[in-house]
Amino acid sequence: MAEKFILEVCAYNFQSCIVAEKAGAHRVELCDNHHESGTTPSYGSIRQAREKTTIALYPIIRPRAGNFFYNQEEMEVIRKDIDICKELGCDGVSVGVLQHNAEIDKEHLKRIVEWAHPMKVTFHRAFDFTPDPIKALEDIIECGCERILTSGQETVAVDGLDTIAKLIKVAADRIIIMPGAGIRASNIERVIRKTGATEYHTSARQKMSNNGVLRRAELMYLGHAYLTDESEVKDILTVGNKTMRRYV
Length: 248
Hints:
The termini are close together. This protein has a 4-stranded parallel sheet. It has a 4-stranded parallel sheet with strand order 4-5-6-7. By secondary structure, it is of the alpha/beta class.
């Protein structure tokens, strides 16, 4: 197990990127639309995040909610969004592409890795929908991705620790396996001890207060805005670093 504990924060706005960097996180996955499990953030959000922070920035590239198989027109949207990330100086992107049978779409993933270069590519939790995680692991390695974000094919990572540990063993340092989904300061020690992973992913989010006065608010559902909880990120880092030193 390596000594360095690396924490990625899932940020749902550029303000959360600022908070994550201030708290000491190492990287952010910038998303939009929390209630859709994350879609591609706007040009303005990516640019603002890049201009206001120096932290490693990986916008999610997901043109819509729903499944992870895309037609040619949607792949063109993905290509153009990747070009924007490259233009704005992002360090990488987070993507996931599957076939109709939920296996990895290697043809399109290889294109995405090529389009993104020299940026790095994380394969996000679309991985958790694949029927055979070991085959999916090998396919993603073949396509040239840098890491896989996974909950071990469970709703939360703490329920998929056996699978995550197996993936790390099979990966054998050929790709980074990054546990994510429900990672908190209260469970990070257990996840580290069970998996031996070196990188972890958390949203550490809290609802933002709404101090404005809304007239006829009943006419529409406005949803909730979320902001990264600085204290939670700091607590995860404290426990994570301490655990790494103890069990290395």
